[in-house]
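Instructor's aside before we start: the two examples that follow are unrelated to each other. I chose them only because their records fit on one page, so don't look for a connection. First example below.
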Amino acid sequence: MAASAAPGGVNTVRRVITFLLLGVMVLIAGIGLAGLIERAITTPAVLADFGSSGLAQSLAFTLIAGPFALGLWWFAWRNLTDASADRHSAAWPVYLIIAHTVSLIVFSLAALEFLSDLVIGVWSPGPLSVALAWALIWVWHHWMWFHAAKGPT
């Protein structure tokens, strides 16, 4: 007599690990993307003042965590069908709620900091780059949240 598989045991652990790794990789890629955007916004003269370690860190964060996050996202996204338990599990909406909320908070605070600096007449590309990077992440997660075929149920 063959033993039946546990309903959800290994799959639940897989979902939690996948979405936890995805969240960490999105966070790291967002930090790297913000650093690259800041370097793109600044003038070339200021670009040399940053030093090469900041550029190396931003590139490493973006070029390593970014593709890893996209790979994990693709792995999770292709399994989110009406027939699969992944779409109906609690891990998917919990990940989306956390990522959606964190990206909205980081975007809002950075945008407010940038606008407050503009009010006093200071140009600060740092908060602007953070706001742009995390706005992209927020839009991506907002799109996933309200996707008709793959959004959480």
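Example two begins here.
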Amino acid sequence: MSQIYNITHEILPPPIGDIEYVYNDEQIIIVDKPANMLSVPGRTPDKKDCLIHRVQKRFPEARIVHRLDFSTSGLMVIAQNRESHRILSRQFENRETEKTYVAKVFGQPEQTSGELNQPLRCDWERRPIQIVDYQLGKNALTHWKIIERLKNSCLVELSPTTGRTHQLRVHMQTMGHPILGDELYAHEEACSMADRLNLHAKELIINHPVEDNRMTFSSSSDPF
């Protein structure tokens, strides 16, 4: 006899702000994604509103290249055509892009900088939760440094070498300094210290898909 499941649809909170268009030409679009917005549509009707659908209203041929978590804000590159999408996707696969994030984390790390090198995998029974697994996990490396020490938290710069799902969030949790407002990985006190996930993609460096020159984009928004 088949088991019957009661399925409920999560009501997503509205985006925090609007999409900011940082740059565009015939090949690429650089946007600053607000927090609480999906990068691509979800499976259910209530999750159809997303960044790429909104961008396509202005740029009909736009194609998603990479993603940011629903709760994460910041810079993303979007391709304007199939060939640019192929070239940009390969850059991400080959780790030729550079991404820098800022985050507010709980507590005070003793050191001022360091690296976190713990392999990650999905905890399939608790999806989308990711966990550290030294046997089955995929390599994940994050460099971090403190920008400013605050009263009960720190503003840090995070530079991931790899791009695993929830990498920065899990790495800061395992370090003992979870990101403020993180409903998945922060303990109750850290989660309650912010009304949103305090993680923002601050800088993005790519090679232009046609001209092949190195391009650096920085977010001017004040995310927190």
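The chain has a mean pLDDT of 93.
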